[in-house]
UniProtKB/TrEMBL annotation:
Residues 71-95, 809-831 are annotated as: Disordered. InterPro entries: Sortilin_C, Sortilin_N, VPS10, VPS10-sortilin, WD40/YVTN_repeat-like_dom_sf. GO terms for biological process: endocytosis; Golgi to endosome transport; vesicle organization. Residues 134-742 form the VPS10 domain. It comes from Cynoglossus semilaevis. Keywords: Glycoprotein, Membrane, Repeat, Transmembrane, Transmembrane helix. This is Sortilin 1a. The chain crosses the membrane at residues 25-44, 755-777. GO terms for cellular component: cytosol; Golgi apparatus; membrane. It is found in: Membrane.
Length: 831
């Protein structure tokens, strides 16, 4: 098995989102997905309690080093202890005051609230509240719908449009991903004992009611390629399709378990005719490309599957019993290949962290309940994997890992590892998993006290992400980065030789994670506006708030604006997805009424940016005089970025401008090949001892291939030219072998195995002896583009009962779904 240490495993994935939702496959799948919708898009810091998932198992070794999360530590901190305050632009206060709008909802506030933007730049925002009263065996429910056309400044009660029909709160509002203004609500009508769709094609101005011939199990899924086509799974596992935006429906399959839109109008489903969806490993994976006229079975004995980037990834049962192995297809399921997998026991799991057009990042759980595992990266076919990072934290039960894709700079990912001596450390890679390193200490911050080890303190920055939120630490927002705010990352963190459980501060990087500085003291909710030209933050506290902080220089200094004289219990900060807006809404409540305060910052940035406001900035620059400076994955990028001292408006049409230049190849453009590894601090790939002198063979598309390598394999997507060009050949051995286990009658090996290590055989042996517990993790697909917020009932109770002390409960409450909102939903990942 050590021979596989250079190899990988696989897992489904999606990514780009920090928060992945573990799907309980099978029967639970459908219900989980609706929950995840809520979770992923709604409660950023939502934790196990909120999602209905079991609480994360925290291995003792990790817990040991986490000091008790804040008990009675006062949350209130005076602002400006460390953070720099700026002189506000002249007239800012009065300017903002005349552009601040407040709207109070007349409804009582005990119900969850859903929010959805409709279209892009339309300013239309729909808000849904539902409440339900259990009465004997029945439930009586009612919903209210509100609509704003001005980015949340004013709302109209339009509940009559849906006749106050009760809308499942888990379903929420489904707004079409193509921004064409389509909206769907799924109502429950007790008279007809069924479901009624309310469909709008005019940005929620009018709704057409349509009674459904079935009861949906979760929200309707839009075909990302054509939003007139909808898919829905019924509570009786029938699959229904509509090609006319929900007016008429036809049943296209029964016994469906998991359902996904794929690229080019394709639909992938798992089914089980003879059993239940609970019989994992007994499912058939089927695909249709003609909207259900015909289905083709593309895999059997399927445990689960996932679509991500160009990859279709499935876990398949082997021979008999409980063992399974990952198969990968890059052509939508026509040809499958088994991926290399290290041996794992039943309690272990795989999790795809990311899958894009180039490669797959996967986490393989270590044996035992260690809470850590190893990250592997794949080749461009998803078959051969290299070890990327060990001891990555990922709990078995809760699906919590800090793995984060930094969206503001290519090739950058962060995660947290548990070191041998039990501390948690943030690691970052700038070259797509080639090498990882710790973060530098922030320029302007001291070590936080609270670390109790005796070793010399190394002042490194440690970022708090999903894992911290599941520990109920006081982290109201996850790390935040956006493609159009180049190089910018906002994150909560602490400084020391390991992650500290003290109340974290907000740190900002403006160069994609190379350097960091302390931006705000104490936890905050934050938001990016105008493609990074404006940053906003609201302090996270249990007391009512009346202040918002804003920065026009990427977080270097902050101004304070008192947006109201009558503080409110803050819920969430919300702006239109896409980060181009200048309007921001602060949701909260006061006197048991929900309230939204919308501030238009447009008049603050009084002038449009011109050419002179931008400077050239080389990404990944670490050695300004070096020839290879800025080279990552074979090329360098120079961006035009806003000057820090420019206070101006990028505008809605702002597009990131960049120039590319090719680089010559070096060892750093290569992953170590199968059977090779890198020593610490070295670029050179050396052969694993046990592999020396043995030819490597593996099975590709049913034919044995011999790999002749000098140890290097170009990183998928790397565009370097010339320079270091190690030899690597795959020689076809003209021998048939088993490259996948999908077809029982696969021909067996025709030549006798020689001394060579035949990778596939190794794998098969592994499979015989071990069981791969595969959990497919994926970013959630709600079938639409929406942004959801939920106001915690608990919070309102707290206010009502005048309970001063709010414990963990509040961190999981209201959060801006924004950080969770992600334009690359997995649907978008499929091209
Ligand atoms: C609205 O609901 C009421 C009571 O549920 C019902 O009597 C009425 O017919 C409904 N109106 C429409 C237009 O559906
Ligand atoms: C279902 O079961 C029947 C008999 O038990 C069997 O003939 C049939 O092949 C099974 N179908 C599938 C899809 O497994
Ligand atoms: C803003 O509000 C704070 C209290 O939250 C108060 O101390 C401060 O004086 C106010 N500033 C202005 C300019 O009103
Ligand atoms: C802010 O909202 C107003 C409407 O109240 C709208 O006209 C304006 O375009 C919005 N600004 C931005 C940048 O979205
Ligand atoms: C690798 O480099 C770091 C920092 O330069 C150093 O602390 C460490 O000891 C090095 N490791 C080895 C094995 O040389």
């Amino acid at each position: 098995m050590h021979s596989l240490s250079g190899g990988g495993h696989v897992e489904p994935s999606f990514s780009s989102l920090g928060l992945v939702v573990k799907l309980k496959l099978g029967i639970f799948f459908a219900s989980m997905i609706s929950v995840s919708c809520f979770l992923a898009l709604g409660l950023l810091s939502s934790t196990a309690t909120g999602s209905g998932l079991p609480p994360a198992g925290i291995p003792g070794s990790i817990q040991r080093n986490l000091v008790e999360p804040r008990r009675s530590e006062p949350l209130k901190r005076s602002t400006g202890v460390n953070e720099q305050t700026c002189t506000a632009p002249p007239g800012a206060e009065s300017n903002l005051r005349s552009n601040t709008h407040s709207f109070t909802f007349t409804l009582g506030s005990v119900s969850p609230l859903w929010l959805s933007w409709v279209g892009e730049g339309s300013g239309v925002l729909l808000v849904l509240t539902t409440f339900q009263v259990p009465l004997f065996m029945m439930r009586f429910g009612q919903s209210n719908l509100y609509r704003s056309e001005d980015y949340g400044k004013t709302f109209k009660d339009v509940s009559h449009l849906i006749n106050h029909t009760f809308v499942h709160s888990e379903f929420g509002i489904a707004s079409s991903p193509d921004n064409s203004g389509k909206v769907i609500l799924v109502g429950e009508v007790s008279e007809i004992g069924g479901a009624r769709l309310f469909r709008s094609q005019d940005f929620g101005l009018t709704f057409v009611p349509t009674d459904l011939p079935f009861e949906p199990l979760f929200q309707i899924q839009y075909n990302p390629g054509d939003c007139n086509t909808l898919l829905s799974l019924s509570i009786t596992s029938d699959l229904w399709l509509s090609e006319d935006f929900g007016a008429t429906w036809r049943k296209i399959h029964d016994s469906a378990c998991m359902v996904r839109w794929g690229p080019k109008n394709s639909i992938y489903i798992t089914t089980n005719y003879n059993g239940s969806c609970n019989d994992k490993g007994m499912l058939a994976l089927r695909k249709t490309t003609d909207y259900g006229q015909t289905f083709k079975t593309i895999a059997t004995r399927v445990y689960s599957f996932i679509l991500g980037g160009k990859f279709l990834i499935a876990s398949i049962m082997t021979g008999k019993g409980t063992q399974r192995v990952i198969h990968v297809s890059v052509d939508g399921g026509e040809v499958w290949n088994m991926a290399q997998l290290p041996i794992i026991d039943p309690e272990q799991f795989y999790s795809v962290l990311e899958a894009d057009q180039d490669l797959i990042f996967i986490h393989v759980d270590d044996p035992g309940d260690s809470g850590v595992g190893t990250i592997y990266v794949s080749d461009d076919r998803g078959i051969v994997f290299s070890k990327s990072l060990e001891r990555n934290i990922y709990t078995t039960t809760g699906g919590d890992t800090d793995f984060t894709t930094v969206k503001s700079l290519r090739g950058v990912y962060m995660t947290t590892v548990l070191t041998e001596d039990g501390t948690m450390e943030t690691m970052i890679t700038f070259d797509q998993g080639g090498r990882w390193q710790t973060l530098h200490g922030p320029k302007n911050s001291h070590c936080d006290s609270g670390t109790s080890t005796n070793r010399p303190i190394t002042c490194r920055l440690h970022i708090h992400a999903s894992y911290s939120t599941t520990l109920k630490m006081n982290v109201p927002s996850l790390p935040y980065s956006q493609p159009n705010a180049v190089g910018l990352i906002l994150a909560h963190g602490s400084v020391g030789d390991g992650e500290s459980a003290l109340s974290p501060n907000v740190y900002v990087s403006d160069d994609g994670g190379y350097s960091w500085f302390l931006a705000l003291t104490g936890p905050h909710h934050y938001e990016i506006l105008d493609s990074g030209a404006l940053l906003l933050a609201v302090e996270h506290t249990n007391s009512p708030v009346n202040q918002i902080k804003f920065s026009t220089n990427e977080g270097q200094c902050w101004n304070i604006y008192n947006f109201t004289n009558d503080p409110l219990y803050f819920g969430a900060i919300v702006s239109e997805p896409g980060f181009r807006s200048m309007n921001v809404s602060l949701w909260g409540y006061r006197n048991r009424k929900k309230i939204v305060i919308t501030i238009d910052f447009r008049m603050l940035l009084t002038r449009d940016c011109t050419e002179k406001d931008y400077v050239q900035w080389m990404a990944h620059s670490t050695d300004p005089n070096g020839l290879q400076d800025g080279c990552v994955l074979g090329y360098k990028e120079t961006f035009l970025r806003l000057r820090k001292d420019s206070v101006c408006w990028n505008g809605r049409d702002y597009a990131v401008a960049k120039k590319l230049a090719p680089c010559t190849c070096t060892m750093d453009d290569y992953h170590c090949d199968f059977g090779y590894y890198r020593r610490e601090n070295s670029s050179e790939c050396v052969e694993q001892e046990e592999m020396i002198g043995r030819p490597l063979e593996f099975c590709l598309n049913g034919t044995a291939e011999q790999l002749q390598t000098s140890g290097y394999r170009k990183i998928p997507g790397d565009q370097c030219e010339g320079g270091f060009q190690p030899t690597r050949k795959e020689i076809e051995l003209k021998r048939i072998c088993t490259s996948n286990l999908l077809h029982q009658n696969s021909p067996s090996e025709t030549s006798s195995p020689n001394a060579a290590i035949i990778v596939m055989i190794v794998i098969v042996i592994l499979l015989m002896s071990g069981v791969a517990g595969v959990w497919l993790v994926k970013k959630y697909v709600c079938g639409g583009r929406f942004l959801v917020h939920r106001y915690s009932v608990m919070r309102e109770h707290i206010e009502a009962n005048k309970i001063e002390e709010v414990d963990d409960v509040d961190t999981q409450n209201v959060e801006t779904g924004k950080a969770q909102y992600n334009e690359d939903s997995d649907q978008d990942l499929l091209e």
